[in-house]
Design a protein that fits this description.
By secondary structure, this protein is an alpha/beta fold. It is 42% helix and 16% strand.
Length: 218
């Protein structure tokens, strides 16, 4: 994907600042340990696939650069997730990228062939690419140009994010390319599902596998 900028939206993995539903079941420290493993594994997978990636982190005062030394990292800017994603996209285009792809760090198992397909589609002229997630959101959003209209006044974290984004595309006369559906890791059941993928060898996530072992999850 020459030139296409992948931006991974990530929270700094510390106790009390990561997935609340995982933390409520597993404990804050275990949830932070798993989140850290997700970041390390997704970073390694993207690098191995030669996919250029920048990491937009939150909260802005966190030492995220120490987690991925030598990588392109920058703090997220904005009052809510929509504003922060729009700002990350704008930054990618301001840096000269011909297209931008947003990914979430809570899907370390993301199909990198789908990511590459999104990049190729954008380079060929497709305006919007969406990878829907099973919880009603999306794990990937690819844009050929800044589209701040896709990020405003949406109930982020709820089950209607994908539907609302599609409706915005219709209003803007955009026909998005849709990628295969996958799942984000939000709940303990999702984590067990991810553990099964790793155990079968469907995806190689060594840091996550070690974190799951430490947490007693299989």
């Amino acid at each position: 994907m020459p030139g296409v900028c992948v931006v991974v939206m990530a929270k700094y993995p510390q106790a009390g600042a990561v997935k609340t539903r995982l933390a409520a079941s597993l404990g804050e420290q275990v949830a932070a340990d798993v989140a850290r493993a997700f970041v390390l594994d997704l970073h390694a997978r993207l690098a191995a696939a030669d996919i250029r990636a920048a990491w937009a982190y939150w909260p802005r005062e966190s030492p995220f650069d120490a987690l991925l030394p030598g990588s392109e990292v920058f703090p997220q800017e904005g009052a809510d997730l929509g504003e922060r994603m729009a700002a990350a996209v704008s930054r990618a285009f301001a840096g000269g990228a011909p297209a931008a792809i947003l990914l979430g760090a809570d899907a370390p198992h993301v199909d990198l062939m789908a990511v590459a397909a999104a990049g190729k589609a954008l380079e060929s002229g497709v305006e919007v690419v969406i990878g829907p997630s099973e919880d009603g959101g999306y794990y990937l959003l690819g844009l050929r140009r800044p589209r701040p209209e896709l990020f405003g006044a949406i109930a982020w974290g709820g089950p209607g994010v994908y539907a609302a984004t599609l409706a915005r595309c219709v209003a803007l006369d955009l026909e998005p390319l849709l990628l295969p559906v996958t799942f984000d890791v939000d709940e303990p059941a999702d984590l067990r599902r991810l553990a099964r993928l790793v155990a079968r060898g469907d995806v190689v996530l060594p840091a996550t596998e070690a974190a799951l072992v430490r947490a007693g999850i299989s």
